[in-house]
Fold:
Amino acid sequence: MKRGLAEMLKGGVIMDVVDVEQAKIAEDAGAVAVMALERVPADIRRDGGVARMSDPAMIEAIQAAVTIPVMAKARIGHFAEAQVLEALQVDYIDESEVLTPADEAHHIDKWPFTVPFVCGATNLGEALRRISEGAAMIRSKGEAGTGNIVEAVRHLRSILGDIRRLTQADSAERYAWAKQLQAPIDLVAEVADLGALPVPMFCAGGIATPADASLVMQLGAEAVFVGSGIFKSSDPEAMARAVVEATAHFKDAQIVAKVSRGLGEAMRGAEIAGLETRLAERGW
Amino acid sequence: MHKVGVLALQGASKRHAEALAALGACPVEVRTPEDLADIEGIILPGGESTTMSKLLDLAGLFEPLADRLREGMPAFGTCAGMILLSARILDGRADQRCFGVLDVDVRRNAFGRQVDSFEAEVAVDRLPGGGFPAVFIRAPVIERVGEEVEVLSSVDGLPVLCRQGPVLAAAFHPELSDDLRLHQLFLED
Structure:
């Protein structure tokens, strides 16, 4: 049942929002859910300092303002923040590398929670470790706040490519895969049999245009998270609507072309090599 | 019915398509008006009803699909799909539309937020093989049932599965269980 909500979000766009006004713009544009946070990743990068769970009052205001699901972020390993978010009845908790980690060895044990969790992953081993801890959805991490799709593509290709290779492994080789991936053998075997993760896999980190959304959906993502890409563009309403349409019609280049016209400036974006902090490296 | 459309703009369409294929039907993903051409029936899946309503409009699909439904094409709506089929959405967004081929009024997310989602075995009238494993996720509630609507199952006095002519609708998600009996019922009718 925890995985069920992720099924309902498939083919949709989950948008980062920092206030009620942005949440309404996101819902108007057809977002399937919003992620309530204090600063979008691009601003967290710019401002520095410790990034924490959002103010409960802000999360509650957004819950009151929209009818779609509301997600919120907790720091990696910060189970007390997650408990607070569960008390607020958020619909999903993102244990997120975008916030400053609270624990450098342990992620949250997610099984005791009623609220489902989504966690980021850069490779298959990381994804399976998060699932073993109780994550009900995986998102490829990408590099949040950059507007640069290259890391999202790297992570998606790594996860999905390894899944394809794993399905070819014989029963003995599965144990070697488990060791190499540092993941439980039962999950490795399940992925080998299914040819897919046992939970939905969405994509995050760097999506800034409708074509970016189409790209990652065609690569195998089942829905997309857009953080800074909407509200750091010059026309957020138009960009939000266009990304929603491009995600729904990701295989139809005519529609992606149509919705990409005249959107103004996409977010400025950043080269990965020039970054001070690689958020995707957070997670163990 | 053989060729059955599954509205694939957003939501759990894949699970419905898998269920149809397992029963020997031929699922057709529906995203544009052209996709309606060959289908004999359609499933409207779970997902976000506000998003689907918007995408139906943007794709120019709302009116052609509404025409087919009014002409009597069989339809099966689950959760958000049931909301789309209903006559009235009591707490919907102002711009949210519904097809009005199932004479019920619905209230969205009326069972609560995700933490209130639940699973229950529900008794279904005339369905052989015992209770049905029903998964309710931020489920809608039917608050008014029209005279021509037959209620097939209820939970705590609230209708959760109903039928009106060729239209079948569930507040829960049969596509998330491995039980194919409701898909079978839809294909047979």
Remarks:
- The two ends of chain B are 9 Å apart (CA to CA).
- The mean pLDDT of chain B is 94.
- Chain B touches chain A through 38 residues (CB under 8 Å).
- The longest helix of chain B spans residues 13-22.
